[in-house]
Amino acid sequence: MNRWVLLAGIVILGAAAVVLTQKRRVDVHASPAALLNFVADSERDLLRMPTDFTRMPDQEEIRIGNELASLYVERQGTKKVSDEDLVSDYLTRVGEQVAKGAHRKLPYQFHYLTQQGMVNAFALPGGHVFVGAGLLALMDSEDELAAVLGHEIEHIDHYHCAERAQRELALRHIPLGELISLPMQVFEAGYSKDQELEADREGVRLAVATGYSASGAIRMFEAFARLHEEYDGTDKTPQDEAARVARQTLEGYFRSHPLPAERIAQIQKLIASENWGVRAERDLQVAFIFRTAKAQDALHAGNYKQAEELANHSLVLRPDQLKTLEVLASAQFSQANFSGATKTFRRILQIEPTNSEMITSFARALAAADKKSAVSEFQSWASGLTVAKPLSEQVSAAGLELLSGKQESPQQLEKVLLQDGSPQAAEGLGELGWWHYLAGEYPRAVELLGLAVERSPDDRRWRLRLGWADIEVRQYSDALGILDSVTYAPGTESEKAMARAVVRWRAGGKDKAMEDFGEAIKESKAEWQNSQLMKALYSPMTAQSIAQMNDEAQRRSEKPNADAAHHRP
């Protein structure tokens, strides 16, 4: 009888436990951090398992690594990014040099992962090493890269990768032939503390034996230390997707690796014990690519000064990069450094003299810098062209003449464009219409921009510019209508909101205007607060309205503080 009572009690307790577990169940979203943390937490359990596996033959390890690498590369997709081949070739060249000193003579292969959020490197069994763009972006020298590659090579050379694979197979009860079902995060995550420190030591030995400075490893870990401080001290919910993925990856990385300070201390002791002398570090030959990428990010974020600095740094490493020069010119113009932007645009046009967008931007920068000399400066540049002059050159020359008060050439060009039904002519009409706007000839600007909208109805530029021109002829309802028809696109929403704000401000609706103004400055506050830039880009009345709204925003932000101070006992 007692046995039955005991059994019933056990069943009841078991049922209660199941119910309680279900009530407290927590749904966890999959993420790089979750997977890396899982692997980091399971490392202790893996190490408790028997370690006397029969070591797999090299050929078997190579086969498994090839299959895993092939599957991983396939999942990354085939879309190429700019300069990918250049970075990949460089990575292979440095990696093969470092790998020559490895004990195991495996067919080492080196892969570049182009995701900016990939602030990591990892190895697969058999000789595959992957390095993320986010990690390369932290480096300044080839010696840092050699230390990272040496570290990953040593994970392979000392069987860390192979043993990890065998342990995971045993833990998950996966047959050897189904190894490709393992998540790649198993290899992205760190190993045991001893294995990580071993890979650090032996990786630096490899790099030094190849002729690199051991200081490269120290500087790499110092970069990790800065990242660790940033990770601990900043908001954990970045909005940008690449930043979010990078932060999640770093969360798992810092949980699964020794602290940077400990790794630095170990390398410093190694340098002292081995009596390694001081060696000059070599430049990272692809650093310019990542400086330019950072400059572009800063430009898009409205951090124009930072964008200018990064672009200049990249150009020191490799002059005459078109993409970088364009970032530099845009950053200079956005800071109202019109003379600097003019010089940069001229550098661009020396390389690519028929770039229509750059020709137009060059003319605008000249006009913003000095309207009196703009025509002669532009003509001087155009006279040196050894190729057929593009339409943008003719339109820009006519536009600069409009600013100087001349009408004959612009009128002749306008007649030609009106008779031409090509897309290029529509583009020319739109640009010429905007030059009329900048010259203060608003009715004609409305007419030409209206024609550009009719001929190119899907081009957002002409709709936005027509809205600005409608404001100047006091067609406020028309302006709001055309602005509302501008479809969403990154980079246009701020201007669209500011144009609506100016309409409402000019029409007397200040409160609604300030709502739109607040929406506009969310994306590019520095730009809209630069009065010199506003005077160069828009009409005098519009520039004045934006300045007044800036003052009103400042007044409204100060009022609550003043009221609070007044009522404070």
Structure description:
By secondary structure, this protein is an all-alpha fold. It has a domain at 33-50 and 57-274. Helix content is 71%, strand content 2%. The protein has helices spanning 2-23, 32-48, 58-76, 84-99, 133-136, 142-157, 160-172, 185-188, 193-209, 215-233, 241-256, 260-274, 287-300, 304-317, 322-334, 338-351, 356-369, 371-383, 391-403, 408-419, 423-438, 442-455, 460-472, 476-484, 493-507, 510-528, 531-537, 540-567; strands at residues 109-113, 121-124, 128-132. A hairpin with a 3-residue loop joins strand 2 and strand 3. The chain is elongated. The N and C termini lie far apart (78 Å). Residues 17-51 and 235-242 have low confidence and may be disordered.
Q: Which helices and strands occur, and which strands form pairs?
A:
Elements (H helix, E strand, L loop, with lengths): L1 H22 L8 H17 L9 H19 L7 H16 L9 E5 L7 E4 L3 E5 H4 L5 H16 L2 H13 L12 H4 L4 H17 L5 H19 L7 H16 L3 H15 L12 H14 L3 H14 L4 H13 L3 H14 L4 H14 L1 H13 L7 H13 L4 H12 L3 H16 L3 H14 L4 H13 L3 H9 L8 H15 L2 H19 L2 H7 L2 H28 L2
Parallel strand pairs: 1-3
Antiparallel strand pairs: 2-3
Say how many strands there are.
Answer: 3
Helix content: over 70%
How would you describe the shape? Answer: elongated
pLDDT average, as an integer? 86
